[in-house]
Structures are given as C-alpha cells and as structure tokens.
Amino acid sequence: MTTSRIAAGSGSWVHWNPASVGTDVPAADSIDLVLALFEDPIVRVLDTANNYGFGASEERIGVAIREYGGVPDDFLIQTKADRDMVSGEFSGARVRRSLDESRSRLGLDRLPAVYLHDPENISWEQAFAVDGPVAALVAAREAGVIGTLGVAGGPSSLMRRYLDTGHFEALITHNRYTIVDRSAERLIDHAHTLGVHVTNASPYGGGFLTAWPPPTERYAYGLAAPSARHTAEEAASLCRAAGVPLIAAALAFSTDDPRIDRTIIGMRTVDDLRATRDLLAAPVDDALLQALRRLEPDPRGWQDPPQSLG
Fold this sequence. Notes:
Elements: E1 6-9, H1 27-39, E2 45-47, H2 56-68, E3 76-81, H3 92-106, E4 111-117, H4 124-127, H5 133-142, E5 146-153, H6 156-163, E6 170-174, H7 185-194, E7 197-201, E8 218-219, E9 222-223, H8 226-242, H9 246-255, E10 262-266, H10 270-281, H11 286-294
Parallel strand pairs: 1-2, 1-10, 2-3, 3-4, 4-5, 5-6, 6-7, 7-10
Antiparallel strand pairs: 8-9
Helix pairs in contact: 1-2, 2-3, 3-5, 6-7
Pfam family, one: Aldo_ket_red
Protein name: Aldo/keto reductase
Organism: Microbacterium paraoxydans
C-alpha cells in the first residue's frame, strides 16, 4: 500500500436520503476533484465504496480515470464490498457481485484494496459461512481479483474480533478516535501490534470538531453527547491559547499518531483538497497534542458504550 498519510473520502458526494436531493455534489465537481488528486503531491489515496450513492461515487471516479488515461502508478483507489442495500443480502454471491460492479464502474480489472464494509449488519455466523462474504473475499484475494483485504466498520470490539481471524491486513475505524471519542483506542493499539494497516476515518466527527462553537449539533450519525461538547470546549480553549484552529488540531490528533497509518478526510470539491493541504501545513506542536490526549472524555458519550470495550 502507498505511504500517504491522508486519504480523500468520497462518501459525501451523493446523499442516500431522498429528502437531501438537490444537495448532492455536481458530478463535474467530483470528477474535477479526482483529477486534481491524481496530480496532488500529498494526498495519494481515494477511498470509496460500492454502496456510496448507490454506485455513483465509483461511477464518477471511473469517469475521471478514463479522462486521465488510467490511475497513476503511485496512487491508490480503495473500495469496499457491500451488502445489497435494498434486500440486505450479504452472502458470498452478493460480495462477488459487489466486486464485479466496482470493477465495472471503476474500469479496473483488479481492485488494489478492498474492505469488507459494515459487517455489523450481519451475524458472525453469516459472515463466516462456507460461502459467506469473508470466504468470498479471501478467495478473490487468492485469485488476484483484489490486492489488500481489509475490514471497515463501527463497533470496536467487533472489528477486533475480525482482525483476530488473521484474514485481514487492514482496518478502517470511523468516528471512534477523535479528540472527544476514544472508543477505538484499544482497537488501534491491537491492530498496530498485529501489524495491521490502520486507517482512522472522520477525525472531525462529521464536522463537529471543525470550529468552536461547533457548526453542527451532530457528532457522527446522531446528536453530540453533552460530554462531547464539554470536551470539545476544553479542546477549543487549549487550541485558542496555542493559536491553533481546532480543526487543524483535530486533524493532527490523528495524523500525528504513530499507530495510525492513514486518515480519511471527506472531500467534496477541489477547494476541500486545498483546505486539507493548508491544515496539514499548519503548525501544531507536540505540547498541544499531548494536552489534547490528556483530556478525559466521558466514555458514556462515546460511539461505543464502555461495557462493550472490555
């Protein structure tokens, strides 16, 4: 896998909710972003998934690949194998269709990196059935259809259980290792010890940590807990004293962690790419980061409840 510490996330290009129609990113903007990423010296990874926008994300990336004449040799496009979003089917057959759909949309014979996506939506027994999704992905890797095989999902204890099977070389955890939520702390430690490639997604918690007062009352997929607001206010005070924007510190909290190999930042337009480059260049000294790490967010406000973390 490439050594880029930042990946551009495409999950917000096209919304799922019919009520959000009209707020989607224009296709031309998405394609322009991909073309800019191909030329960018810093961000060399693009993260997508079969189900993002019911396939629209991969389709737009595929258009950009064709316009560019292929994917640059040092650039990684990673996608995820998904369940059927209408029926909920997540069988081996569905995974094979998911891979075929992704290859067709992207125009790639081989998918360099694929993650089993959100396996919390099925039981452990379903995931590891004889012709279940895990078996299908392992077979696809052995056949050379995919390269790196990873797992991407929510509950930290479940992600650890998947890693312990030995099938997965890479992990994506999201919204669970930020200034205000440390749900994935032990998971990241464990993955790092195993030699698994660790990607931390959503270091801003869906926008909550981009400014103070926050521009949104939501953290991840729900309302921010009062304890999250309290910790964010403490963090904002530390950042203000250090002369550092909260958003820059929230990004550095992930990118400067030696256990984390890559951080996914949602990008919708070329302007977001430019803004991310500026944030990466912002000086965030170690004293501030250590002070932020010493904050003690109340675990009751985390994405994973304390009792589930062992």
